[in-house]
Amino acid sequence: MYPASVVSDKLLRMSETRPAKLIEGSALAWQILDSTRHKIVSIHEKTGVTPCLATVLVGENESSAVYVRMKRKRCESVGMKSVTIELPHETTTDELVGEVSKLAQDSSVHGILIQHPVPRTIDKRVAFETIPLLKDVDGVTSAAMGRLILGMPAFPACTPAGIMRLLVQHNVQFDGTHAVVIGRSPIIGRPMASMLINAHATVTLCHSRTRDLSSIVRQADILIAAVGKPQFVQGDWIKEGAVVVDAGYNEGNVGDVDFEAASLRAGMITPVPGGVGPMTIATLIEQTADAAIEQLGIEV
């Protein structure tokens, strides 16, 4: 989430210029956090245990450090314990695996998150696979992703899960619609496509190298932009009345979509900041509480 003053000022400017309905995520995120707070109280009353999220941060990426501090603040706001393991940039894959293994064996830790990005010298897939399925609260392991594709229970990737929840709240219909996802990462794009398929949308998964991408985007009833390039999606690519979700966040508080131009054609659109970001953090914290419930074998 972002400072309230930054979000509210930007949303005010957006509301004065756009015809599209704004899909704002902060209000729903706070509802999720409030519900999670009650879960945590109940967990502690029944077991004496406080759910704990452990985040592993490798290197000195300032954006990642800010994001980790933000998550810690949100955890503390709902009564959840937050632990951060900070490792130097020179950390090897084996060293990272060793740290994650310790957290995996620690019964007081209920969710494990390896903060993205990690240095290129690290084999992140090997590191991710060290996280036990029950503690994989961000859906990064092959087991979690495989279960998602097959429609089996597992914690899904937080950003796509948050997006789906936000769209459901705004009564977006998936059945039979054409959804286009730009971005093929295993953290956003691929799980997002799977969730939309499971919701009976017809999905086209694209990326920055897709040929004639603008023509494909113009067919989208629902567009999810997660390509990681500022204002990559142009306004005239948007189908009239389409639902546009910008899952990008780039320097200067801009997303992957040219918001001003796209909002003139879209029916609904998420802002950056204040759209997808708050939902990602709220979903992560909620799934950590749910992981604690499952690991403790209780009902709340």
Summarize the structure in words.
- The chain has 300 residues and is an alpha/beta fold.
- It is 43% helix and 13% strand.
- It contains 11 helices and 9 strands.
- Helix 2 packs parallel to helix 11, helix 7 packs across helix 8 and helix 7 crosses helix 11.
- The model has no long low-confidence stretch (mean pLDDT 94).
Q: By CATH's scheme, which homologous superfamily of the domain at 157-279 applies?
A: NAD(P)-binding Rossmann-like Domain
Task: Please summarize the sheet with the most strands.
Answer: 6 strands, parallel
SSE pattern: HEHEHEHEHHHEHEHEEHEH
**Structural class per helix/strand content?**
alpha/beta
The number of helical segments is 11
The pLDDT mean sits at 94
Shape: globular
Report the β-strand fraction as a percent range: 5-15%
Strands ordered across the widest β-sheet: 1-9-8-7-5-6
Q: What would the CATH topology of the domain at 157-279 be? A: Rossmann fold
* N-C termini distance: 27 Å
Rg on CA atoms, Å:
19 Å
CATH architecture of the domain at 157-279: 3-Layer(aba) Sandwich
Low-confidence parts = none
Number of E-state strands: 9
In short:
The protein has helices at 4-17, 26-47, 62-77, 93-105, 124-128, 142-149, 158-169, 189-198, 213-217, 259-262, 276-296; strands at 21-22, 52-58, 81-87, 111-114, 178-182, 202-206, 222-225, 243-246, 268-269. By secondary structure, it is of the alpha/beta class.
